[in-house]
Amino acid sequence: MSNNNSTKAAPKEFPGQLEGETVELVFRQHPLVMRKALIGGLLIILVAVLPLDFQQIYSVDWLPGALLKLVWVAVAVVFFGWFYRWVGWYYTVYLVTSRRILVIKQKGFFDRKVDEWQLDVISNVNYHIAGFQAVLFGFGDITVRTYVGDLEMKTIHKPAEIHSQLLDAVRRGGGGSTQ
């Protein structure tokens, strides 16, 4: 297994690991999934700071102090929102073992969902890089097709490399078109 920016050192053990199961690949979404929260937060800070630029507010003694407090509250709320989104991104992990794919999705602080897909029921693995932004920043979507449904992994960093590593793991696990 080659290590790149989208994969991190695979842990040797994790909670719920089966006997004889080895971890082959660990990856997560591209950090760019947090871009909407970043842009929205910056706009909120800009709107909060903008009234301080007008000279008229300084003619009222209490107004600049009140607006400055409002700016600090806006900054604190934005930083909390950014931290909330970062927690969701950082703790959402895709784990590929010798037997299965585990999808651990974290949403906020107290909401975690774990999905498990056995490698031997996977029929194929596809990836899709759509649009200028995806090409520029190197992310795309990976779809794992099984007989019972599809596992869609959105906004994955370097999807071609992850796709190749996933195909290798699926073939070793007995799935796909093993010939």
How is this structure best described in words?
- Helices cover 35% and strands 27% of the residues.
- Residues 1-7 have low confidence and may be disordered.
- The chain has 179 residues and is an alpha+beta fold.
- 20% of the residues are buried.
- Strand 6 (139-146) and strand 7 (150-157) form a beta hairpin.
- The protein folds into two domains: 23-30 and 93-172, Roll (PH-domain like); 36-86.
- The protein has a four-stranded antiparallel beta sheet with strand order 1-2-3-4. It has a three-stranded antiparallel beta sheet with strand order 5-6-7.
- The chain has helices at 35-49, 63-90, 132-137, 159-172, and strands at 23-27, 93-97, 100-107, 111-118, 122-128, 139-146, 150-157.
- The chain is elongated and about 75 Å long.
- The protein has four helices and seven strands; from the N terminus they run βααββββαββα.
- Helix 1 runs antiparallel to helix 2.
